[in-house]
Amino acid sequence: MFAEKSKYFLLAWGICGTKWVVVGGAGEDSQVFPYLRLQKWEMFILTAERCSVPPALGFIGKYELKIDDKGRLTIPARFKQVLQEKYPDDEMQVVVSLSLDQNLLIQPVSVYNAMVSKYMAWSDLDEATRRMKELFTGFAAEEKVDGSGRIRLDSGLRDIAGARKEVTCVGNMDAFSIWDREKWDQTQAATLKNQALLIKQVDERIRN
């Protein structure tokens, strides 16, 4: 017969970065075994090599995500790491605006300010310049990524981009974009079909 309080030991395998480690735990249960309701729990590393996550290069990769009922999106953990490591002075502040493809463009606030400062130097005597300035500043909202990695997406911008629920998040080194998932799938199908032609066209423009 088991004692009313029994000590037990648990082993589990876990992964950290690219290294496998052994994790153990010990505690006491307040019920007769096997109803293990812990009163105390202490986790500790039994044996492990020192491991770390590689430094952030930038916003890269593609992720399928969902916008919640409050218009918030939980960004990929890797993107949160990029904001913390590459843009620490921004303090998780980002700007949500419209991309040239009319999707949501999310930039660290310092990247957005550097981009807009170039347009602000252009003369307002040109109508196209005025419209561009209005596009990049009028259709933009400053937001802060919260502790859970969530960012609020302005409802007006979401309506224009068609990003309502299921979306695809795409990295672009110093920024990332939020596409309506169906629109992304259609656009990328066409892009992949014409990949060789697109590469040739871009290469010719660079050479010229």
Description of the structure:
The chain has 208 residues and is of the alpha+beta class. The chain folds into two domains: 7-47; 62-201, 3-Layer(aba) Sandwich (Chemotaxis protein chec). It is built from six helices and eleven strands. The chain has helices at residues 77-86, 109-120, 127-138, 155-161, 181-193, 195-207, and strands at residues 7-16, 19-29, 38-47, 62-66, 72-74, 93-98, 104-108, 140-144, 150-152, 166-171, 176-180. Strands 4-10-11-7-6-8 form a six-stranded antiparallel sheet. β1 (7-16) and β2 (19-29) form a beta hairpin. The longest helix has 13 residues, at 181-193. The radius of gyration is 24 Å and the shape is globular. The N and C termini lie far apart (85 Å). Mean pLDDT is 79; it is low at 1-51.
Task: Please render the helix and strand layout as text.
Elements: E1 7-16, E2 19-29, E3 38-47, E4 62-66, E5 72-74, H1 77-86, E6 93-98, E7 104-108, H2 109-120, H3 127-138, E8 140-144, E9 150-152, H4 155-161, E10 166-171, E11 176-180, H5 181-193, H6 195-207
Antiparallel strand pairs: 1-2, 2-3, 4-10, 5-9, 6-7, 6-8, 7-11, 10-11
Intertermini distance: 85 Å
| Percent range for β-strand residues | 25-35%
Uncertain runs: 1-51
Q: Would you tell me the structural class of the helices and strands?
A: alpha+beta
CATH class of the largest domain, anyone? Answer: Alpha Beta
Query: Could you report the average pLDDT, rounded to the nearest whole number?
Result: 79
CATH superfamily of the largest domain: Transcriptional regulator MraZ domain
The total tally of domains equals 2
Radius of gyration in whole Å, from Cα? 24 Å
CATH architecture of the largest domain: 3-Layer(aba) Sandwich
Side-by-side strand order of the widest sheet: 4-10-11-7-6-8
Helix content: 25-40%
The helix-strand sequence is: EEEEEHEEHHEEHEEHH
CATH topology of the largest domain: Chemotaxis protein chec
Mass-distribution shape:
globular
Q: Treating each run of at least 4 consecutive H or I residues as one helix, how many helices? A: 6
Strand runs, count: 11
Largest sheet: 6 strands, antiparallel
